[in-house]
Design goal:
Elements (H helix, E strand, L loop, with lengths): L5 E4 L6 E2 L1 H14 L7 H5 L6 H9 L7 H15 L5 E2 L3 H7 L4 E9 H10 L8 E5 L13 H6 L7 E5 L2 H10 L2 E5 L6 H6 L4 E3 L11
Parallel strand pairs: 1-4, 1-6, 4-5, 6-7, 7-8
Antiparallel strand pairs: 2-3
Helix pairs in contact: 1-4, 3-4
Length: 214
């Protein structure tokens, strides 16, 4: 087992399965713009870099002139429906209880207000020492500047921290900041894409980290 003083978690695809609601919001936006609906897997593979990037991708290069309209439609719909089908992954609360003595933060490229709606709904907010999403800071994963203030605030050296996430940006953030990484292989990102980045650890289910870290 390896000891860490700070555990950093991604949200979507790591703690919460929000895929159905994101898919619904994307296809609602496309239908509103008179564009054909997209395949579920294609949509989920576009997730991870923030709402603005997701909207850029869902409308495609030919329709960037309608970006502002599409962004407004997506945000309004998703904000109203982000809890319609969202569920916690199995073992999340058990894992957080197990590591209750550790510093824990969420760092996500999801907008902070949307993130907190989800964490509040699942009684996760108070289990974390901080929740950082888009709007909290001008930076986003994998920019190490999103993490540096957290390390400073908690007096944590990089080697004492690990990020657990299912996204390429999570593993890139770890590399950029000099912290360890654990790839969640059953999240939104194809497992092969994560393994190509050679995370320090990997797991199929979040509960596995109870036997990996202390």
């Amino acid at each position: 087992m390896q000891m860490f003083d700070l555990l950093i978690f991604d949200l979507d695809g790591t703690l919460v399965d929000s895929s159905a609601d994101i898919i619904a919001a994307v296809n609602f936006t496309r239908q509103f713009l008179a564009l054909p609906i997209m395949d579920d897997k294609e949509i989920i593979h576009m997730v991870g870099d923030g709402t603005d990037k997701l909207v850029e991708r869902l409308i495609g290069p030919a329709h960037q002139g309608r970006y502002a309209e599409a962004l407004a439609i997506f945000i309004a719909y998703y904000d109203a429906h982000l809890l319609d089908n969202a569920t916690l992954y199995a073992g999340v609360t058990d894992v957080l209880d197990f590591f209750s003595h550790k510093k824990k933060v969420i760092i996500t490229n999801k907008r902070e207000n949307m993130t907190r709606k989800i964490t509040d709904a699942f009684s996760l907010t108070d289990r974390f020492d901080d929740i950082i999403g888009m709007g909290t800071t001008p930076f986003r994963k994998p920019d190490l500047r999103i993490l540096q203030p957290v390390l400073t605030r908690f007096c944590i050296e990089p080697h004492q921290a690990i990020i657990v996430g299912d996204g390429i940006a999570d593993l890139q953030l770890a590399r950029n900041a000099g912290i360890k990484s654990c790839g969640m292989l059953n999240g939104f990102t194809p497992r092969e894409a994560l393994l190509e980045l050679k995370p320090d650890f990997s797991c199929e289910h979040l509960r596995e980290i109870k036997a990996m870290f202390c």
